[in-house]
Structure formats: C-alpha cells, structure tokens
Amino acid sequence: MWNILFNREQNNDFQYNYITEYSRKIEFSTFTLHDALSKNKYTPVSVFRYEKNRELMSYDYAARHLQRLKTLRHPNILTFVDSYEDENYVLIVTERVIPLFEYLENEEDGRTRSEFIRWGLMNITKALDFCHREGKFYHNNVGHNAVFVNDAGEWKLGEFGFASESNSSRSGSRAEQALNLTIVDPRKSLKPWAADVAGLAVLIAEVYNRSTLTERPLQNSQMVPEGLREVLSLILESEETPSARELLTQGRQNGSFFQNDFIDRILFLEAFHTKTPLEKANFFKDFQKCIGQVPEHVAKFKIYPLLVMAYDYGCEGTHLLPTLLEFYKKRSQYGVNLAEFIVKLFKSSSRATRKMLLDHTEQYINKIPQGIINDEIFPLFAAGFRDGSAAIRKETIKSVQHYVTKLHKNRINRELLPLLAGCLVEETEGEIRRISVETIGNLAAHIDPNTRKNVLLAVLTKAMKDTDAATRGTAVKYLLQTQEFFTPEDMSRKILPALCGLVLDREQNVRSNVFFVMRELLGKLEDIEFPAEAGEEAPSPSQKTWTEWAIAALPTTFSSIFKEDAPQKDERNMIEKKNTVSAENNQTKDIEYKKRETDERQIQVNSVGEGVRNNSNVGTSVNKNCEDQSGRVADKMENEGKQEKEDDNQGQGGNFSRRARRGPKRLATRINHKERRPIE
C-alpha cells in the first residue's frame, strides 16, 4: 500500500478524503479500491474508482455496476453510500470493505478460520438467492474477485457490471470460465442460474487454494475440507444444477456444510425476537463459553449490534453483559460501543441488571474512556446510593473503590464524599454504615488535602459513636490506618479523647482495638521532640522531652482545676481553726482551775504544819500524828491529781477520736496542742 494525495485531483463537491490505495488491484474488474473518510463525520468508507481514459467497454461495466448497486439493499450485498462522476473518474462510495483474499491473508487463527469461511460462503449463497428470487437477475461474475469483507467479517457480493436478466455470458465475465471448469457432462441441462452456482463452486476452490482457479477437474481439489466437498458434489454430480435456495436448504441440515456452532449462534441472534425466554436463557448460557473464540472485529461489529438489538427486544441485561465481558476479558480497551451499551444497562429499571453491573465493575471500568465514566456513567451509578434495595446500596458502595481512580477530583470531593458521609446519618443498615466508613478510609489518599483532615475526623469520630459495634471497630481501625494525615495536636486533643470514650465499650473486640490504637498513637507522640526556640541551644538527649515537661506541668494543671473549690477550702480551714482555739481555751481553763485548787490545799497543809511547830508543848505523839495526817493529805491530793489527769486524758481522747474523723489537719492540730501541754 502506498499513500497518495488525492485532494488535488478531487472536486470540492466530493465529500470524502482518500487515505490509501491497496497494492493488489481487483482482478477481473475495472475498479481500484481505496480507503477514505467522510469530511463531515469522519466515517470510514471505501471508494471504488474508475478512470475514464480506459476503453468504452470498461465504462459501460462501471455504469451498469453503479446502476445495479444503487437499487439493491440486502445484508449480504455491498452497501451503497454515495457516488460522484466528473470528466476523469467514476467514484462509487460503499461501506468500508477489503478484497476477500486480503482479508484471508490477515486472518491468523487457522482453528476457527474454517467456521468463518463457511459462514462467508453461506452469505454469498444467500446473496445469489436474493438476486435470483427477488431481483429477477443473474450475477454472471461470481468468484473471489466479486467478494468483499466488511469490518464485521461479513462477506458481501459486489461487481454487478455483468448482471443481467438472463444467464447469457458477456465477454470478459467469469461465467463462461466457471461453466467450463465445473460442467463435466456437456449434455447436462443447464438452468438459468447454472453460471452463478458454478461460480460459487469455483469460489469455494479459490478460497482454500488462495489463488484464481484455472485448472480442472474441480472435484479433485485436495485443499477443500471434506464438509464442503458435499457442495461441490451436489453441484457437479446432480442431474440438474441445484439453485442457491436448494443449496441453503441442503446445507442447513444437521451436520451439513452450512451448519456449525458459530453459524447457528449468528442465525439465532438475527432471529432473536422470535425466540422464547427459555430459548434465550439457554442460548446465552452456552454462548458465554465460546464467545472468546470469536475474532475481535466480528464481535465488535457483528455480535455487539445483534446483542443491542436483542436488548431492545426485551432481553435481560443479566444475559447480555456476562457474554460481552467474557469476550473482552483479554482486550485492553472496549471502545465507545460497549461503553454506550453499559450506559444503556445502567438506565434500566431492573435491579438484577444493575446488581450485575456492580458485581462486574472491576472487569470493565478500567477499559472505558475516562470522559464517558465521568459524564455519563457516574451520574447513573450514583443513583444507587439512594436505591430502595439495601443490596443495591451495599454493592454501590463496594464498587466505589473501582471508580475513584477514574473520577475527576471535583467528582470525588463534591459528589462522592457527601454521598458516602450521608450513609452514616441516613442508613439504617449497620453493615452498610460499616462499609461506608471503610470506603472513606480507603479513599483518604484521593481526598483534597485542604479538607482531608477535617473530613476524616468528622466521619471517623461520628462512626465511633455508632450503635453498630462493627462500625465502631472499623472507625477505630481506620484512625490508625490514616494517622499520617493527622498532626500531633489532632492526635492529643481530638483523637485520643475520642478513643477514651470507647475504653469501656461493651464489645471486647472494640476495646482491644481501642487500647491497641491508643498505645500506637501514644508511642508516636512520645517520640516527638520539639525544635529549640530562637536563641536557645538544641536540647541534648539528656534534656527533658516534651512529654516529661507535660508530666511536670500536671500539678500546676490540677491546681488550676481545683481553684474553683477555693471558697469551700477556706470555710473548712476557718472551722478547723475555730475548733482548735476552743480546745486551747478549754485546756487553759482546766489548768488554771487545777492550779488554784492545788494552791489552796498546799496552804491548808502549810497552816497545819505551822500550827504544830508553833505549839512547843505538844508531845511527840501529837507531832507524829500531825506528820502522818499531813502525809495522808499530801498522798490524797497527789492521787486526786493523778485521777483528774487520767480523766482529763480520757475526755480529751474521746474528743480527739471524734474530731480526728473530721480531717487530717484537725488531727495534727490536736496532737500539737497535746504535746505543748505542761507536765504537772
């Protein structure tokens, strides 16, 4: 192939731009084939170009071909799009196709090639049957040169320049050559369609030999598979040449040449609207197993449109989606077609279809263009957060992790996060609230850094107060997992106090997680060292860390806390002081009274002794009696003093025991006064 610039040759009225020209020209044809794009929609097309500087006969062929092609509409006939003619060229625009041999050379899978060749041959047979029965004309030029293949792998019949209402061969056509190669017995009666059916036999041999057939006998060709030899035998050995319709009927019988699994599935999809629900369910169950064997271009341009048509006819998306995903499992990108189909499935009101979409999110989300996900799929996906089914809400939240890498930042922060946070407030299912917390924790790295800390704190602290134990435990777990997004101040002032509220949680698992997280966070805080202030030296390892400073500051902190109780403390001190003064006054009075009593008794003793000494006439007996009496009085006074002292001690002890219970300070005051009591 070689690139050419046709724009200088084209008239501005021609609405297509040429791209390339195939190196192999079409045999037995006056046309050359080119790829092109429409100027407006950039739709890929093919352009058959005829140059008018050739002989007149070639121009007649091109004109007849154009006229016939314009009037034909059939799935197996080349689709006409547009045409243009000027003084130099006749240009015929069709759907994008390539020559048959070009297509066969590009096929790499020999194992499945035979099935597709049979499908293609059946398509050409259908086209001939349409021409004979509906069009009332005969092609008269059947061969590999008249067959083209579109993007879907469908074989299309073209080259209608020799077509006529009779089987008369024209000079330059392949009809006479086909008859010479296929008709063994010249006495065999020929039907009007004999030339076209003979051309079909030639086409079969050419496809498997990959060359134009020029030798006979055809039936000895060893390259033709055994199944297709039945067609050749039917054509060559029958007394009358079978029609295209008879070949189709014979070929579709069980195990015949036009019957295989691939052809059966294609025909089923084409007649999908006529099938019963049970037949549809069984079909997709089997089709899903073998869809991976279908070539990509066939699945994209043939299978996909048929599946969309089946969905439009009421087929459940639960049948269609697994089939397509199985095929695209090994493909790197789906493209726009399947993305549009997924959008259509999301719009479905069927909860079974939506749940299947959510269950298979991982298989398709990374292969759909990001723009389609943000603009078309996500708004439909987000509706699942408020679905009436708890199962749909649960699967929607689980699927968020697959969407987040494809969503724009604004979508995440302005739409997705509010939906997830709303689940903590509005959701009645504890399991769904737990999954919401887990999802937000996993999305932490994708949240806007300016709001990430506040969002996480609000969500996790809210979840720690949830009535569901699993939700509380998940919140505690993700506090530790997202700790890198919090400052030490957040940990000490917000997170740790919130965790303290769960140390007495009724669920042992929650309590264990709380203590574990607290130990981890405290260990991290303990290792923090504050930098030296301006003008100060950096602290050495022997200096106090900030935690030691905090511990040293605890007494001051507690004293500031108890400042509110100062009036009560002063009142208590005044009461204790008053009681102490009263006790001291009582002790002083007791001491003065006892001293006075002792002095009076001493005076009496002295007066008695003085009287005895002054009376010199008293005898020795009298003096002795007086001394004895004086001694008895002194002993009595001493005993009375001891008894009073013991009574006083007992009375004070009782008061002490009662007052000691009123506070340690009273006890100390009483003991001090007792120590200061003078010894008698």
TrEMBL record:
Stated family: Belongs to the protein kinase superfamily.
PROSITE patterns (UniProt xref): PROTEIN_KINASE_DOM (PS50011)
Function text: Regulates COPI-mediated retrograde protein traffic at the interface between the Golgi apparatus and the endoplasmic reticulum. Involved in the maintenance of the Golgi apparatus morphology.
Region (Disordered) residue spans: 563-680
Biased segments, Basic residues type: 658-680
Compositional bias (Polar residues): 603-624
Biased composition (Basic and acidic residues): 563-579, 587-602, 625-645
Xref: InterPro entries: ARM-like, ARM-type_fold, CIK-Related_Protein, Kinase-like_dom_sf, Prot_kinase_dom
Domain of life per record: Eukaryota
The protein's name: N-terminal kinase-like protein
Domain Protein kinase intervals: 16-284
PANTHER family to which the protein is assigned, alphabetical: N-TERMINAL KINASE-LIKE PROTEIN, SCY1-RELATED S/T PROTEIN KINASE-LIKE
SUPFAM superfamilies xrefs: ARM repeat, Protein kinase-like (PK-like)
A Pfam entry, by short name: Pkinase
A GO term for molecular function: ATP binding
Organism annotation: Apolygus lucorum
